[in-house]
Amino acid sequence: MFTGIVEELGTIEAVEPLADGSRLTIAGPVVTEDAKHGDSIAVNGVCLTVVTVGDGRFTVDVVAETLRRSSMQGIAPGDRVNLERAMALGDRLGGHIVQGHVDGTAVLRGTDADGLTRFDLPQRLSRYLVEKGSITVDGVSLTVVDAGETGFSIALIPTTKELTTLGRREPGDEVNIEVDVLAKHLERLAAAQLVHQDHGAQARSGDNGGVRETR
Prior knowledge:
The structure is a single chain. The chain is of the alpha+beta class. The chain has a domain at about 10-85: Elongation Factor Tu (Ef-tu), domain 3. Helices cover about 20% and strands about 35% of the residues. The chain contains 4 helices and 12 strands, in the order E-E-E-E-E-H-E-E-E-H-E-E-E-H-E-H. Strand 3 (about 40-45) and strand 4 (about 45-55) form a beta hairpin. The radius of gyration is 22 Å and the shape is globular. The chain starts with 7 loop residues before the first strand and ends in a 9-residue tail after the last helix. The relative contact order is 0.16. The mean pLDDT is about 90.
């Protein structure tokens, strides 16, 4: 689990094609301080497992499914990426609960007259967004300012622009999105409750309202 508070900007040093994905070599002296094989590190919001680590860099394997679902498919040597180690028990939760399981991608539309940064987002994901709710963009925990059916807006402070890749993004760029996991759980629970109520109503109508027929 992560918090969406980026620890450092890493650099992609190499991308090696694999039979079912890619292996990335990433320079990140901060996140590799105590990293070891098998640890989890979020790379632009994608939870990846450390394969090797040493000399301030580490390697991770990205499977084909993750490449299809995220913006990782377009990553190249020299690209900067947001890095965060998995949180430890007792750590301060500075952002919000982030799983590192990317739900899809959004496209940066640009900055409007009010200074808000706007993104286009598929409707299947936009339904989970609410005003003042949380969203993870490229691994960065952010607050939704406006939420619409096909997009949303956020307010990027100078510190976030400086310390993350979001300050380097251009209109048309694709970013990884993880919606708030609590919203997905609530939707599932609500759907299950509606099904339960529907089945109960059908059962009541099927027993003739509790009235026994006589001949």
